[in-house]
């Protein structure tokens, strides 16, 4: 088949603002005010965001994590992935989350 792949409406429908809002919601869960307030989803969200940020140094995101978080969290992850299917070279700093990503790295990946 030589035809180029069809663009799917669900992917085209995800806007820059939709993806930014999803990142913000995920960061709120991954970075509660205290470590004691973290949930089981917090580290999975951190895995997702940090793998996107720098998978080589921050680790990868096991796709099974999508099945191990609440549906609304998985939907936010998929929203970001759908946006990245359109704009593959954009990172969280495009939405002003550079500092938050640094805090996320400090909390979940910094050497002890």
Task: List its traits.
single chain, mainly alpha, 5 helices
Structure write-up:
- With 112 residues, this protein is mostly helical.
- The chain has one domain (9-108).
- The chain contains 5 helices and no strands.
- Helix 2 (16-30) packs across helix 3 and helix 2 (16-30) crosses helix 4 (71-86).
Number of self-contained structural domains:
1
The poorly predicted ranges are none
Distance between the termini: 52 Å
Which secondary-structure class do the elements indicate? mainly alpha
Estimated share of beta-strand residues: under 5%
Query: What's the alpha carbon Rg, rounded to whole Å?
Result: 15 Å
Number of helices: 5
**Mean pLDDT, as a whole number?**
91
**Largest sheet properties:** none
Percent in helix: 55-70%
Give, in order, the helices and strands. Answer: HHHHH
Note the overall shape. Answer: globular
Number of strands: 0
Briefly characterize the structure.
This protein has 112 residues and is mainly alpha-helical. 58% of the residues lie in helices and 0% in strands. The protein has one domain (9-108).
Topology (elements, then pairings):
Layout: H1 9-12, H2 16-30, H3 40-58, H4 71-86, H5 98-108
């Amino acid at each position: 088949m030589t035809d180029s792949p069809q663009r799917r409406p669900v992917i085209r429908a995800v806007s820059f603002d939709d993806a930014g809002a999803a990142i913000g919601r995920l960061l709120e869960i991954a970075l509660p005010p205290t470590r004691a307030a973290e949930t089981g989803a917090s580290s999975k969200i951190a895995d997702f965001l940090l793998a996107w940020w720098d998978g080589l140094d921050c680790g990868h995101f096991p796709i099974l994590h999508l099945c191990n978080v609440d549906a609304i969290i998985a939907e936010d992850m998929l929203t970001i992935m759908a946006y990245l299917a359109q704009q593959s070279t954009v990172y969280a700093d495009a939405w002003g989350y550079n500092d938050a990503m640094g805090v996320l790295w400090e909390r979940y990946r910094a050497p002890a």
